[in-house]
Amino acid sequence: MTDSQSTWKGNAVSVLAVLVGLAFIASGAMKLAGAEEAVKRFQDFNYPLWFMYLTGAIEVGSGIAIMIQMLRFWGASLLICTMIGAIYSHARIGEGAGEMIPPGVLLVLCAVVAWAACPFCCKTVTTEPSPR
To answer: What spatial distance separates the first Cα and last Cα of the chain, rounded to whole Å?
Structure first.
């Protein structure tokens, strides 16, 4: 892979991370604000109200972290766990696959970001050009 391809892919991952981060910040802010829709969803799941606020804080914090390159892997990893929990919650109350698609898509997007930002993986995706 050439340096320009690597940089292009790194920039694409950065853009994806920002978009995913903004989506989670918005979703988490709704939960932290106690939006009526969010309260109803957590009641449907039979979860206590404090868990909605905890989930909102995790989404906002991880949404910010995923946009910071140094924290990107950890933010994306925590969001992957959160989306697994969301899918489980929908399945547990017997909702159809249609309700599980949004968290499933977000899970996949977070996995792409986590893989690209993984400090333990050998790959050549970078947002900075290598020195010549």
So the answer is: 15
